[in-house]
Design a protein that fits this description.
Elements: E1 5-9, H1 10-23, E2 27-31, H2 34-40, H3 45-54, E3 58-62, H4 70-79, E4 82-85, E5 92-97, E6 101-106, E7 118-124, H5 127-143, E8 145-146, H6 147-160
Parallel strand pairs: 2-3, 3-4
Antiparallel strand pairs: 1-7, 2-5, 4-8, 5-6, 6-7
Amino acid sequence: MASGVVINGVRDALAVALQILESAQEELVWLIPPSINSLSRNYDFVEKARAFIQQGGASRGIVPISQANVGEVQMSLKNGEDVRHSDEVHELFMYVGDRQQSISAINIGIDEYTLDTPVTAFWSEDPTYAEYLLASFENAWSQAVPAEKRIQELEQEAGQA
């Protein structure tokens, strides 16, 4: 595997993820905890993703969806991103652009990320490593629930409360 760079904080990991999004031409896949999804709003991910999709790119992502972040997910759906829900991905995140560039991390025991949370993430431009991450993503994707279905479930729960 070609050498990569170790990133040690959320702020830098998000900056790298944004760089991956900005350089992607065809496809972006992402798997992130809800707090990383919220923090990404500070880095113009919404606007950059919208522009990427308008230029013909495809963005697919997995994030745990709850009442707390349903508005953010609806914004991503409105942009044209294909989003799914999973409760199984709260301790890891990854962004992979064009099956080539990637950043990934597994951080055990972090419930809520902030911009100053220390993490250990690996940034790589090795297509072989990106393919490994994509295989993991596709496995999680196949088991995840479409965001629209999860949002309906949350709406029903809120209506019953």
